[in-house]
Amino acid sequence: MSDAMMPAQRLWTGDYYNEGAGHADPFDTLREECGVFGVFGHAEAASLSYYGLHALQHRGEESAGICTTDGADFNYHRSMGLVKEVFDRDKLTSLRGDRSIGHVRYSTSGDSKLTNAQPLIFKYRDGDLAVATNGNIVNAPKIRRQLEQSGSIFQTTSDTEVIAHLIARSPKDFVEAAKDALGQLVGGFAFLLLTNDKLIAASDPNGLRPLVMGRLGDAYLFSSETCAFEVVGAETLREIQPGEMLVLDRDGLREERYAEPARKALCAMEYIYFARPDSDMNGSNLHASRKRMGQVMAQESFVDADVVTGVPDSSISAAIGYAEQTGIPYELGLIKNKYTGRTFIQPSQELREQGVKMKLSAVRRVVEGKRVVMIDDSIVRGTTSRRIVNLLREAGATEVHVRITSPPFKNPCFYGIDTPDRGELIASYKTVEEICREIHADSLEFLSPQGLIQAVGGENAKDYKGGLCMACFDNDYPTRTDFDGEEKFGCTC
């Protein structure tokens, strides 16, 4: 049989190329867990949530959902796909009410299917309940086993569902039941809980996952990042504090607490990679923080070169900072193709094997004959770094010096970032020199932990480790990670 007559080989299992990418992602990048957006007291709650989720799309590209209420009925829509694919004018019009919560999701260790798309919706004795969360509950398997042994029937494989069961089984009123339920959870999480008459926003005791509150007229808004407030014209008020629970109902806003704040430990990767550069966290702008990372990197690991380039998009700010500090010109040596993420067209085997070329291109006229400093945010398995270095060499770069604006990524995340097992993280078993050879670079340096803390700065600069969780670098986890001998990897929200 000729090649032309051979049946096409299917290179993915879902309805589209990157469905459930997670651990199988050929581009070898870290995946954020989710993004949440909430509205209380605005006639256009569904539309505000739509635009807010659109601004948070980078936090989750696999499914999206919005639930609204007018105080009587719940209206909701969830589906697989990008926000702009999931919602149209008719669907948004059907989402009536002045209160809403919305969610965008990546599938990581949880199943890639509609039943796990959020917000999760439940019926219980006091009416309707919708739950949206960003993060990961480390002790969810233990709680789930206990609930199942006592008769609970779970409808999803999402760890988020455990809080609904804990609330439903409590004899207390909704607010007190939510406090008790949240107090039983261990991990990194930001919750939005919606009933027919209340909206609750809560952050984990360490503040591992970001959650901020804003104001638009008389309405209160909640978001994983401040960039979503800018999109809808809202004012940022403040961040939800660790262990804090805000209750909104017809009597207004109440600030309560379900747990005492523990060690402040906002995920360092939010600063390094995940959050949009126009967002602010802990009083620091992400673009400014990343520029400082590049500047500190230049102070720690200068190398003489002709041009500096950043791997788009998250490393552009750091590359600019490195260039400003050293005086070496910054150039767009790498260009990102923004339209490769979701495609129904089967790539050829050759292109799949060289998958990075579908996503990045080297600008030959910029790098040819030049000594290049390539700035990137992290190295996970090392395969993508090697491919990018090779791209630059194929385009004529005479030297490629790699500078990473984070310490070596050695340990898995238990709080909502989709990471491989420790044995697949190249920095866990190779030295810097060995990694350098593996990725075909002329030199390789990582930002020091102290340099990262210095660059981030912000309101928590004087706290332990600058108020950051750096467990993926130093194995110092702010919570327990082992329950009944079972470790939890990735995010199952």
UniProtKB/TrEMBL annotation:
The protein's name: Amidophosphoribosyltransferase
Broad enzyme group: transferase
Binding residue positions for Mg(2+) = S314, D376, D377
Question: What does the record say about how the cofactor binds?
Answer: Binds 1 Mg(2+) ion per subunit.
E.C. numbers: 2.4.2.14
Listed under catalytic activity are: 5-phospho-beta-D-ribosylamine + L-glutamate + diphosphate = 5-phospho-alpha-D-ribose 1-diphosphate + L-glutamine + H2O
Where's the active site on this chain? C34
UniProt family annotation = In the C-terminal section; belongs to the purine/pyrimidine phosphoribosyltransferase family.
Listed binding positions for [4Fe-4S] cluster are C267, C413, C469, C472
GO MF: amidophosphoribosyltransferase activity
